[in-house]
Specification:
alpha+beta, disordered C terminus
Length: 92
């Protein structure tokens, strides 16, 4: 993978470099993004009543469920991404 920094210097990272990054930072993502609680790694949807990142991510999940007309009784596959690894899915 190739990235460009603000000085426009080309930096190349190998697949192993990227894997090592996520292996070493997973605990930080899990702690600070509250992944076990919010089940998402994005900035979420904020409104006047949102106070935390976890709430914002849950707001996104709720909005997607509303847009898809997903009811609590529905069965929906759950897609999971392990940091730096392939996406998997299973019952959710």
């Amino acid at each position: 993978m190739i990235f460009f920094n603000p000085l426009f210097v080309k930096i190349t990272f190998s697949t192993e470099d990227i894997k090592n990054y996520y292996d070493h930072t997973e605990a930080h993502y899990r702690q600070f993004w509250k992944l076990d609680e919010s089940m998402g790694l994005h900035y979420g949807i904020w409104d006047h009543s949102t106070r935390t990142l976890a709430e914002a991510i849950r707001n996104t999940n709720a909005q997607l469920a509303k847009m898809g007309n997903i009811q609590p009784s529905d069965s929906v596959p759950r897609f999971r991404v392990k940091f730096g690894r392939r996406t998997t899915w299973g019952p959710g």
